Every structure is written in C-alpha cells, then in structure tokens.
Amino acid sequence: KQLNSDIQQLRQRTTSPVAKLLSDAPRAGCFLTEGPPAQEQQRMRLCVTAAFNISKATRSVNVRAQETEAITPAQPAYKNVGPEAKRFAVGEGQLGNVATASLPTLMRLGAGAFCVGYNAEMVEDDGRYSVFRNGNQRLSETSKVTNYPRPAKPLEIYEFELCPFCKKVREAITMLDLDVIFYPTPRDGDIWRPKAIEMGGKKQFPYLVDPNTGRSMYESDDIIKYLFNTYGGGEAEIPGLLTAGFFTVLSAGLGNMARVGSNTVIKSKQPAQPLVLWGYEASPFVKIVRETLCAMQLPYKLVTCARGSPKREELMRKYGTFQVPCLEDPNTESYLFESAAIVKYLMDTYSADATTSTSAAAPTPSTSQ
Q1: CA-to-CA distance for 319 and 322, rounded, in angstroms?
Q2: Rounded CA gap, 322 and 280, in Å?
Q3: Which strand ranges, in their side-by-side order, compose the sheet holding 119-124?
Q4: Helix (H, G, I), strand (E, B), or coil: what is residue 325?
Q5: Residue 241, SS3?
Q6: Residue 141: beta bridge partners?
Q7: Bridge partners, 307 (sequence order)
Q8: CA distance to 48, 184, 200, 285, per residue, from 301 (Å)
Q9: CB–CB of 281/182 below 8 Å?
Q10: What is the largest CA-CA distance in the chain?
Q11: 248, CA 20 to 30 Å: which among 95, 235, 237, 360?
C-alpha cells in the first residue's frame, strides 16, 4: 500500500515521460532517463523495480485464479442421468466387449487416435486439460487443426459402422477434428438408407453431403481428399494409413470381424433432434456406443476430440472432467458418461418399446430442405 502511495505521488510530481513509465510499470523493464534530479530519480527507479516485481507476483496469483477457473465446470445446461465418470476404468462384465472393440484400432495401427500434426510437450501447469501431470508441470497436447478452416455447419455423412470404407472416412474426420452429423445406414435399415439412396441415386456408402459448399460425393478416397483439401492442409498431409489402398481396406475390415453381431438392426423411435456424441474413432468405448446408435438408426452429431484436439479442454470446462464417450441428448436435456450406461440409456429411451417420451418427429437433414 505504501509503495502504491509513493507511485501515485511521483506520478503527480514528475515530468510526462517518467509519469508514463510509472503508468506502464507492470509492463516496463527499463526506465526513461528524462525527468527529475538524480536522487528523486533513484527513488523512482526503486519504485518502478518494486512495482514490476509486484506485477509479476500478481500475474502469478492471476494464473492460479485461472487454474481454478479452468478446472471449475460451467453450470451444465443438462442434468447428469448416468454414473460418475471413471477415467481409464472398464465396467464390470465389460472386459470382453471392450477387448473386441479394441481390435479395429490395433489392426489400423492407431489411426483415428491423433489429430494431424500432433505434438506433445511438458509445460508449466496452468490448470488446463491434461492427460498427465507431474509436479508443477502438465503434458500439453496440440496439433495443426487450430490453423485449418472450420465448416460453419456440420458435415453430413450417411454410413454404417462395419463398412471398412466408412471407417477410413471416420478416421480422416477424426484426424481433421471435424464435427459431423451421422445418419446411420445399417444393412436392412429402413430409415436413413432409403433416404441416402434417394438423394444420391446409388446404394453405396459412405455418402458425404457438405451443406457449406453444396458438394456431395461417394467414394471414400475422394471424400478423404476433399476433406483434406477443404478443411485441412491439402492432400500432401493425408497420412499413409489412409492411402495404402488394399491394405487400408483389408485392415479396416479385419478389425471388425469380431463385431459382426453389432450390425443387427434394432427397431427404434427417432429423436426429434440428433443426439450429440463426444468421442473419436480409435476409442473402443466410443465404438461400442456408435454401434448401438448405428443399429438403432439414431442420427447423432459426433464432436470429435482425438489427442491434440482443443475440444478436450472444452468438454472438461463443460462438465469438470474429460472422458469419452460422453452423450448429450437435447431431447431430454440430459448427459452421461460410461459406454455401458449410455447403451442402456439409448435402449431405455429410444427402442421401439421404450416408455420414455421424446417428442418423436425424425430430424430432417439440411440437404432435404
């Protein structure tokens, strides 16, 4: 307090250049030589130095305040209808299910786990999201996606979970950190599959519709090139795992062989609005939920958040933790974590014989308007 009083008095008594220096003391590391006599100038030098050091201390306190803010979730708009999130835990009786759901990622050598240009380094812990902390440091994960153009509207893709060509496109979407509305088209599906055939004229998947550019297309390789050219760094940045031809398709198909039973259609009630799923392609827990969404033909917006995605911080700020899958249902204003709990919620809420009402008029794709 005494220092602040001295500085205020000196501001009033000194010439303009020095007064400006004192005003800028928190930002200054030097001081102007114009001004009052040497003795007074020396006193000012001490004041400025002290003010500068106090400013650094204040910034340190502010950083700690920001840490508290970073780990304090915003008040959720939705209610949590599931169990408490448990990181790196497999639910009771789910080990076999998770193990077989991991096979596609192993066969694809981890494709769909990282954003393009992924980078990790230890930095000073400022309270932001991190998968690893050590002392006063945290692991900071970044990528190139923050420099890429982002679509104003979510892309739309008609596809089904067990299709190897569809898996390639989902991997590309994850790498580019794009948000997409998926309209599931499982074999024998009677909701979105006929719609896709009507729109595109072919019984072929995946089928991409981009409401931002008016483009629509088939062929997984063409879709991947389009995505990288439009929302990435160009074709030169397409990883080799997506361009290995027959190996790409073979590895994507073999990984799903243990999951063939998940392709059976489950009769369902359509939600009025698409659900929202936070996750990324390589997560076996997210895959379990995607399979159920596909079998029930429930449209959903995938908010991709692979390693290096800035949206990991967004989810942590929203609910106080980062864990995927996380399902948000705007129709019931609820959210929940844990794959087994999410699958149960979907069956209880949207299966054909479910008793929960969700005001069920099927969502309309933007492309059909």
Answers
A1: 8
A2: 13
A3: 119-124, 137-142, 133-134
A4: coil
A5: helix
A6: 120
A7: 114
A8: 54, 11, 21, 17
A9: no
A10: 91
A11: 95
DSSP string, 294-309: HHTT--EEEEE--BT-
Dihedral (C-alpha) 233, 179, 122, 28: value to the nearest 10 degrees?
Answer: 80
For residue 251, give both structure tokens: 């590895």
Q: Which long-range contacts (CB under 8 A, 24 or more apart) does 88-93 make?
A: 91/338, 91/339, 91/340
pLDDT tens track, the chain, 369 positions: 566 666 566 555 544 444 444 444 444 333 333 444 455 555 555 544 444 444 444 443 343 333 333 445 556 689 999 998 887 777 777 898 999 999 999 999 999 999 999 999 999 999 999 999 999 999 999 999 999 999 999 999 999 999 999 999 999 999 999 999 999 999 999 999 999 999 999 999 999 999 999 999 999 999 999 999 999 999 999 999 999 999 999 999 999 888 887 778 999 999 999 999 999 999 999 999 999 999 999 999 999 999 999 999 999 999 999 999 999 999 999 999 999 999 999 999 999 988 765 544 566 676 533
| 3-class secondary-structure state, position 156 | strand
3-class DSSP assignment, residue 29: coil
Nearest Cα residue to 256 out of 95, 97, 102: 102
**In this structure, what token pair is assigned to residue 301?**
């917006």
- Judged on CB neighbours under 10 Å (0-12, 13-18, 19+), 294 is buried
How much is the pTM? 0.78
φ/ψ (deg, to 5) at 267: -60, 135
Q: Taking the CA atoms of the chain, what radius of gyration do you get in angstroms?
A: 27
Place of tokens 């639910």: 91
Q: How far apart are CA 261 and CA 263, in angstroms?
A: 5
Specify the length of the chain in residues.
369
Give the whole-angstrom CA distance, residue 333 versus residue 336.
11
Measured over the CA atoms of residue 162, residue 168, residue 169 and residue 172, the dihedral's sign is positive
The Cα–Cα gap between 79 and 329 comes to 10
The tokens for 24 are: 């800028």
